[in-house]
Each structure stands twice: as structure tokens, then as C-alpha cells.
Amino acid sequence: LAQKLYLEVIEHEPTNAVAYTNLGVCFFAQNLLDEAAECFLAANKVDPNYIQAVYNYSHLLLLKREYYDGFDLYRTRYDERIRGNGAGGVAYPPTLLTPNDSIKGKTLYISHEQGFGDTINFARYYPMFLAEGARVISYVPESLIKLFARAYPEVEFILPGSDITFDFNCPLAEAAYLFGTTYESVPFGKGYLSVDADDAAELKKRLGINGAKPKIGFNYKGSQGKDAVKNRSIELTMILEKITPLREDFDFYCLQYERTPAEDTLLDSHAIPNLGVHIKDFYDTALLIEAMDAVFSIDTSFLHLAGALGKKGFGLLKFHPDWRWSLHDEKSAWYESLTLIRQRKAHDWGSVMDDLITKLKNEIV
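The structure assignment produced for this chain is given below.
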């Protein structure tokens, strides 16, 4: 219906950039990328100042793995017409460095900008900034500091309100543009974060994570806050129904941080250890992931963490995925340890779970 309405608007107002853009969004949500691209480009042609069309087009290019142009156009998110009147990130306004600018001997302030998963994903670039000779100061949410400080001791991680001086500043996600990342040149795809071996052993002993069966950890929903991404949860009842027949061969553990009392009761009734109650920060989550033989999740921050640890995992993806997971591939250059399982149609998690069960049977021994 929405497509029809936008087409009618365009027929009567052929220079209406908003209608072209909204029509493109409709196509984009259906993974009709060629049709969506035509709409975004048409919007830009009739009104080059309508920046929303360019911003949407950048996401389309990234989903198509056309990273060179996609990351360049993705910088339109810095415009107030995209990010609104708020700061939009701690390191705003960014310095707008280019790949040709030297940061050798300079102090570079890098900040968390978007979701936890994005920050975990782009953390891989810290050593590349250091290799360029920069002193790096970085703000990330406190729940990430212990995990990141272990991996990057040369980076000075700070809390909001810290008194700092710097030469240049940029959000962490800017790194992909500055280092000219292509799909073929994504760095550290095998993993780049770790936990202390003694911490991992102590946690397994304390929580009784033992036994000869393969240990499978799972997470079934992303953040449920006001800015949560839609269609990023699977009913716990469906997961329990699907994994119950496998419990003779596998031990399952719930690693969900946010849960409701009803979900806790449901897990207890199925005798699934509820390890999410032990999570205080992302280092705790990393320890739990490390204790498993494999994990599966719909939550992208959890998947980013599992991939960054190099842990074997299965990403359960909605029909229209985030650009990081591209559109059709079973593997991603960002995380070589993850296998991607996709919805065949919107909202169909049943087939995703069936595919997951098949892969657990065939690939985890």
C-alpha cells in the first residue's frame, strides 16, 4: 500500500525527493536493492540537497559490500539533518580527517558513537591507529572498558567528563573510511579480543560448567530499550521447543542479559541454567561465551562479541539484515568464526531455528 501511495505522489509531483526516498526505503526493506538504488538516486537528482536520500543510499552500498563508496557516503550521518539536534556522539563534531591526513605524533580522541555491537565491531581498528603513530584516547561505555583495556593496553580509555586535550577527534566507526576498508580487506576477521585464562577457568568451576557434552550458549533477544531495533527477538518458547530434542547430546545454557521474570521461570521449568544473572559487563559475557563450545544468537552485540573472540557461533538474522552481514552469504569477512542463518521471509523464525538445529547436529561434535 505504501509503495502505491508513493508512486501516486511521484506521478503528480515528479520532483518530490521525499516520495522517491520513501519509495526506495520500501524496496530496500524487501531486499530489492536495484529498485531501491534507482529511487535514492532519483531523489538525489531532483533535489541534491535532500541528504536523507544519500544517507539511505550509503546503507544500500554497504549492504552490497561496496564499502569504498558506502563508508564515504555514510559520513552524511554527521549532518544535523540526519542526527538531529543532539550531540550524536561524544566526539562531535568530528574533525573529518581523510585517508591522506597524517596522525603521526598526534593525539587522537576516538569515541563510541552507536550501539554496543558497532563499538565492538570497530574496536579492531585501534591497533591500526596506533601503528600510524598516534596517541589514542577513547571513550567507550564503562561496561566495555575492562574487555577493551585487556586487548589494547596502549589506548587510554576514559569516562565521560574526563579532562582531555587532543589534536583530532572522530567516532570509532569512522575508522573503516579512514583506512579504506573494502570487503576483501576487513582486518582481524579471525578475532581480536580475549579473556584471561585464569578468569575463564575460575568461572567454569564456580558455575559448574563441565561435563562431556558440547556446551551451547544462546541469546534470544537484543536490547529492549526505547531505541531497540524491531524484529530482533525470538520467542523463548520456540527456542526451548526446538532444542529440547537435542538435550541428550548437548548441554544448553542461557546467556541472556535482559530477561523478564516470566522468562526466568520458563528457563527454570526446562532446567536450562540461567547464566545471564551473572553478567555485570561485557567482560563477564565474554567469559561465558568463552566457556561454551559454540553459541547462537539473534542479538547483534552478542554476535559481534562472539566473533571478536573467535568463538564458533551462529547468527540468526532477520530477512532484511544489518549491512555487516551482507545479503546472502553464510560467512562474513568481519567474523570468520560465525555462520549466518537467514530468514527466508520476514518474521519467519521457525525456519531459521530448523536450519540452526540441522547445523548443530552436523557441525558440533
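Interim note for the steering committee: The first strand starts at residue 107 and ends at 111. The chain has a mean pLDDT of 93.
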